[in-house]
């Protein structure tokens, strides 16, 4: 389980918005990008993130606006 302290300091790499824990992934509260957690380590790379519905490329993400 990812600890809360780590969760508190992690932000979305797109626009530095807060993340929330959703199952075994971290989801940006602003742009909705979903970062998976592997072996308790969140993969905070937009290239690896699952994009929200309707978004085809990371360039289209609106984060922190
Ligand atoms: Zn974001």
What do you see in this structure?
This protein starts with a helix and ends in a 23-residue tail after the last strand. Helix content is 9%, strand content 23%. 14% of the residues are buried. It is mainly beta and 65 residues long. It has one domain: N-terminal domain of TfIIb, CATH 2.20.25. It has a four-stranded antiparallel sheet with strand order 1-2-3-4, with no helix packed on it. Bound molecules: zinc ion. Zinc ion binds next to loops.
Secondary-structure topology with pairs:
Blueprint: H1 4-9, E1 19-22, E2 25-28, E3 34-38, E4 41-42
Antiparallel strand pairs: 1-2, 2-3, 3-4
The structure holds zinc ion.
Zinc ion binds at residues 12, 14-15, 17, 28, 30-31, 33, 63.
How many separate domains make up the residues? 1
Structural class: mainly beta
Strand fraction band?
A: 15-25%
Q: What overall geometry do the principal axes of the alpha carbons give?
A: globular
Query: What CATH first level would be assigned?
Result: Mainly Beta
Give the ordered list of helices and strands: HEEEE
* Residue windows where pLDDT falls under 50 for at least 5 positions: none
Number of helices: 1
User: Gap between N and C termini, in Å?
Assistant: 30 Å
Bound molecules: zinc ion
The CATH topology is given as: N-terminal domain of TfIIb
Please list the strands of the largest sheet in the order they lie side by side.
1-2-3-4
Q: Any idea what the radius of gyration is? A: 11 Å
* Number of β-strand runs: 4
- The helicity comes to under 10%
């Amino acid at each position: 389980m990812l600890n809360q302290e780590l969760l508190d300091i992690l932000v979305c790499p797109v626009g530095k918005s807060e993340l929330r824990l959703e199952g075994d992934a971290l989801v940006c509260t602003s742009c909705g990008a979903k970062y998976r957690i592997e072996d308790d380590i969140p993969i905070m790379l937009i290239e690896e993130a699952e994009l929200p519905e309707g978004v085809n490329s990371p360039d289209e993400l609106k984060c922190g606006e």
